[in-house]
Design a protein that fits this description.
2 helices; four-stranded mixed β-sheet; single chain
Length: 120
């Protein structure tokens, strides 16, 4: 898995990098066919009161690209919400793959049964 973490308008500290990597283990636990991950952490300084912390992620997995983003007042909260969103997307994608695989298997089993019944 290729992992790219970049920061826009902020200094990317080792603590932030480690936090993102530790959270991404949750994604790898559900789906291990992750090819490439790109994380962008940014700060939008509108006014001093309204600093917005934004976290975006693009994940390239076999057969699909997933994207999620989250905005919060705290960067760690934005990362947590981001990983939650991505986790839901990965689980949904995995369920679709498993349903498709089981449906294809059912169809081939039914076709084999029809051939056996037709030969008898």
């Amino acid at each position: 898995m290729n992992l790219t973490i970049s920061g826009h308008h902020l200094e990317l500290t080792p603590a932030l990098r480690e936090y993102v990597q530790s959270k991404l283990t949750r994604i790898k636990r559900h789906f291990d066919n992750v090819i490439d991950v790109s994380v962008i952490l940014s700060v939008d300084k509108l006014t001093e009161k309204e600093k917005r912390q934004k976290a975006e992620i693009n994940v390239h997995i076999k057969g699909k690209d997933l994207h999620a983003e989250s905005i919060a007042h705290d960067l760690y909260a934005a990362i947590d919400a981001l990983i939650d969103k991505l986790d839901r997307q990965v689980i949904k994608h995995k369920d679709r793959l498993q349903e498709h695989h089981s449906a294809a298997k059912r169809l081939t089993d039914e076709a084999a049964d029809d051939l056996v019944a037709g030969a008898a």
